[in-house]
Write a structure and sequence with these properties.
170 residues, alpha+beta, five-stranded antiparallel beta sheet, 3 helices, 26% strand, globular, binds zinc ion
């Protein structure tokens, strides 16, 4: 395909479309590859380390990730399923392209194993810890319609909502 950057608009919290539960990907075709390419362009442009299809209003179980410093290790994760997660959990600071400017602590499993498919539909397994494990859990939440700030206290969540709504009115 011609190498044209396509940037997709990213939904911003508290857009109700962020709560749509994504459907399984069943067709691994050129349209899916195009969606993947556009999501990588969008994620790299926004300087994110992960982007779920839900965030660009495309409700299929598709995630793109790159947690490398060098920004050259793209990972496509389709129809992901956690097959194992560590009992050990850790609280780390998270942010989200759909919740700009907000960073807060969320407790996650330290390590996970995820079964998924690649862009061609080939099954593979990821064993992740560190940033990749956090990123996978965060993005898989998006596919279920959950945004990380919803783990915070109702008080904090209320403040975040009103702050973001104010920004969007400007
Ligand atoms: Zn996010």
């Amino acid at each position: 395909r011609p190498n044209i950057m396509a940037l997709l608009p990213i939904l911003r919290y508290p857009d109700p479309k962020l709560h749509i539960v994504a459907a399984e990907v069943r067709t691994f075709d050129a349209a899916l590859q195009q969606q993947i390419d556009d999501m990588f362009d969008t994620m790299y442009d926004a300087k994110g380390i992960g982007l779920a299809a839900t965030q660009v209003d495309h409700h299929q179980r598709l995630i793109v990730i790159d947690v490398s410093e060098s920004r050259d290790q793209p990972l496509v994760v389709i129809n992901p399923r956690i097959t194992w997660s560590s009992a050990e959990r850790v609280k780390g600071e998270e942010g989200c392209l759909s919740v700009p400017g907000i960073y807060d602590g969320v407790e996650r499993a330290v390590a996970v194993k995820v079964a998924a498919q690649d862009a061609k539909g080939q099954p593979f397994e990821i064993e992740a810890d560190g940033l990749l494990a956090v990123c996978l859990q965060h993005e898989m939440d998006h596919l279920m319609g959950k945004v990380f700030v919803e783990y915070l206290s109702p008080f904090k969540l209320g403040r975040i909502k009103s702050k973001l709504l104010k920004q969007q009115r400007v």
